[in-house]
Amino acid sequence: MIIDGKALASDIEAEVRGRVERLGFNPGLATILVGDNPASQMYLRIKHAACERVGIRSENIVLPGDTDEGTLIKTIMELNCREDVHAILLQLPLPGHLDPRKAMMAIAPEKDADGFHPENMGALLLGAERLVPCTPRGIIYALERLGVKIEGAEAVIVGHSNVVGKPLAAMLLNRNATVQVCHVYTKDLKEHTRDAEILVVAAGVPGLIKADMVREGAYIFDVGINRVDGKTVGDVDFDAVKEKAAGITPVPGGVGPLTVAMLMSQTVMAAELSLERRRS
Ligand code: NAD
């Protein structure tokens, strides 16, 4: 089965539109781009188009590539104070002279659309998920929609980034999977991936996962986005691996749309939480 990320994303968007209507106002998402990275510009266009579809008011703040840390933090602080901005997203990567961790920490935790703030990451680790990173949330949503039993499942994640691997490991543990996290220093990758009933690959290495590395009947989520010969491909050798998998996400059209849809959901969640705070 090919896991249709676009179809699942459109279901999430329909649900998000309903929540926006119930809120009675249009939540606001502010994105910040530092510099002019073309891939970042493209991702932001996709995110803003999704906002339009679900009724989120969005604005993009573009800062020059040589912006200093103080100016970036001040920009974030101003957005933290604005009542019409419910969620803030700092598009990564930042230019080399800026520390993404410092900038992420400046975002108010309750407006942290990507769930990268230590307070939200800490809550996630303690099993109190609130605003969490969007890609892992999208993968958990897909597993639940597909009816895959997470409890007791052997889950293997390839990639231990703060954006995907680490938060996903915590989310799978919160749901009682047995989790292995592999990375570039893992000695024998195949030894681990062959165990996986749920395999998530987020390495950014095209063709990393071959058919002999996956278990028959596994559910496979290919997070990788790579450009090869002018085409976008994932980290999994899709054509060979799909013959063995019970379900597999294509690239493009798999995890990407789920991630964007979850950003919409989290923005509305931030607005719902702000309403709750005002009422209490
Ligand atoms: P990253 O680029 O920060 O780190 C890569 C991870 O993969 C590290 O843990 C590294 O140790 C591991 N790795 C690299 N080579 C490996 C190898 N040969 N064997 C085993 N592990 C290896 O990670 P990231 O930011 O999570 O991005 C990973 C990929 O996912 C990139 O292609 C990125 O573009 C993509 N991505 C896609 C989405 C989406 O929405 N579809 C979201 C985030 C990231």
From the structure above, extract its key features:
280 residues, Rossmann fold, 2 domains, 3-stranded parallel β-sheet, 10 strands, 43% helix, 16% strand, globular, binds nicotinamide-adenine-dinucleotide
Radius of gyration: 19 Å
Strand content: 15-25%
Average pLDDT over all residues: 98
Spans of at least 5 consecutive residues with low confidence? none
**Major β-sheet, in short?**
5 strands, parallel
Assembly state (oligomeric)? single chain
Assign a percent range to the helix content.
Answer: 40-55%
**What is the general shape?**
globular
Which sequence of SSEs, written as H and E, runs from N to C? HEHEHEHHHEHEHEEEEHEH
CATH superfamily of the largest domain: NAD(P)-binding Rossmann-like Domain
CATH topology of the largest domain: Rossmann fold
Strand order of the largest sheet: 5-4-6-7-10
